[in-house]
Design goal:
Largest sheet: 4 strands, antiparallel
Radius of gyration: 22 Å
CATH superfamily: SecB-like
Order of helices and strands: EEEEEEHH
Shape: globular
CATH class: Alpha Beta
Structural class: alpha+beta
Number of domains: 1
């Protein structure tokens, strides 16, 4: 965001800034790929059942500098076969992280930015890693669907409000 100069009565200027959001860095924190039944699994009929789990966490890295770390922990498990003879084709775990400067926002706005904007920045990186690892492991391309983090956050707020209202009724 651009700073505006504001003149003081004594002739000195003072910088006035508004809220600031900036991506400080994006990095891979942890990565795991497992294909426990390779190469036998390549002889199986490819009718995958995909289990996708997404967890998010955040913490303040530097309170003085208003820098927060957000981590997306994504686990994708692809299984083949029927229930009793189900086999794991492959498993990918990714912890995609980023450091974000979030300055001069209200506490509620910071919570929303950490839950929506930051994961929206990180998810394409994690999505590419999952796709790349699947193909490097010899499997068909795995393209994770886009995620609307704003809708997820709105649902979370709605669910929390419903739970709160049910407790007071």
């Amino acid at each position: 965001m651009m700073a505006q100069e504001k003149s003081k009565s004594n002739g000195h200027s003072q910088k006035e800034t508004g809220p600031v959001f900036n991506v400080h860095s994006v990095y891979l924190k942890d990565l795991s790929f497992e294909a426990p039944l390779s190469p036998k699994v390549f002889n199986e009929e490819w009718k995958p059942r995909i289990n996708f789990d997404l967890q998010m966490s955040s913490e303040v890295i530097s309170e003085a500098e208003s820098v927060h770390e957000v981590v997306l922990h994504i686990t994708v498990t692809v299984k083949l076969g029927e229930e009793k003879q189900e086999k794991t084709a492959f498993l990918v775990e990714v912890k995609q992280a980023g450091a974000f400067l979030i300055q001069d926002f209200s506490p509620d706005d910071v919570k929303q930015i950490l839950a929506t904007t930051c994961p929206t920045v990180l998810f394409p990186y994690a999505r590419e890693i999952v796709s790349s690892l699947a193909t490097r492991g010899g499997f068909p391309q795995m393209v994770l669907p886009p995620i609307n983090f704003d809708a997820m956050y709105a649902k979370h707020l709605s669910d929390a409000e419903s739970t709160e209202n049910a407790g007071t009724a």
